[in-house]
Amino acid sequence: MKIFIQIVLILTFTSYIHAEDVNKFEETIILKNRLLKLNGSGTRKVTIFGVKAYDIALYLEFQTQDTKLIIDKMKTKKVITIFRRDVRREKILNAWEEGISANYKDLSKFKSQLDRFLEKIKDAKKADICEFDFEGSLLSVIYNGKKLDTFDSIEFQKAILSVWIGKKPASESLKQDLLGENK
Fold first, then answer.
1. Long-range contacts: 146-149, Cβ < 8 Å, 24+?
2. What are the phi and psi torsion angles at 136 (to 5°)?
3. 4 CB-near residues (< 8 Å, 6+ apart)
4. How far apart are CA 119 and CA 73, in angstroms?
5. Residue ranges of domains in the chain, CATH in brackets
6. pLDDT, one tens digit for every residue, the chain (183 residues)
7. Which residue from 58, 95, 133, 138 puts its CA 20 to 30 A from 36's CA?
8. What is the 8-class DSSP label of residue 25?
9. Could you give the residue ranges of the DSSP H alpha helices within the chain?
10. Strands across the sheet with 138-143, in order?
């Protein structure tokens, strides 16, 4: 029992120390000559202990909480993720597969793009940055400043965004953060 109490105290103290240890995102960015505004940002927490996996920001042409508008209508947007710890490839693959399949039962419209995307995933290191640039029907994935691939599929774009702000997001509180509801 004494060891359990010590572990809880250490975890609580460590969480308190790092409570402000969050990546700060710019309020505005430029994507292909378009000014995008920070719609919201947050931290993806995993496990029952709330382990912080990555920080994330959603940039849009104008701020809104309307997920249908963001996913279906907005042509230019950007998502930036910054890993807060090392994450094995298998865990990342599982997260993508679970997040997309939770929102889409029929993957046939973008299966080839999804397979190509998942092939490019590797282990993530603390402070790695993954960016998703949405421009018209194109989705470019940039990892640590290097473009990994570009996909030409509106449906694949929707699937990627649905993981964070879809009807069944990986985290409801993170969805609210990205929509600017928890300001």
1. 148/120, 149/116, 149/117, 149/120
2. 60, -125
3. none
4. 28
5. 24-178 (3.50.70.10)
6. 544 444 433 443 333 334 445 579 999 999 999 999 999 999 999 988 889 999 999 999 999 999 999 999 999 999 999 999 999 999 999 999 999 999 998 999 999 999 999 999 999 999 999 999 999 999 999 999 999 999 999 999 999 999 999 999 999 999 999 999 976
7. 95
8. P
9. 2-17, 67-68, 89-103, 111-120, 154-165, 172-178
10. 28-31, 34-46, 51-60, 76-83, 129-135, 138-143, 146-152
Q: In b/e form, how buried is each residue of 33-72, taking b as 16+ CB within 10 angstroms?
A: eeebebbbbbbbbbeeeeebbbbbbbbbeeeeeebeebbe
- DSSP letter at 80 equals E
What contacts 167, CB < 8 A, 6 or more positions away?
103
What token pair was written down for 133? Answer: 């640039």
Q: What is the number of residues in the chain? A: 183
Tell me the C-alpha distance between 159 and 44, whole Å: 18
Q: Note the pLDDT of residue 48.
A: 85
Token reading at 123:
């282990």
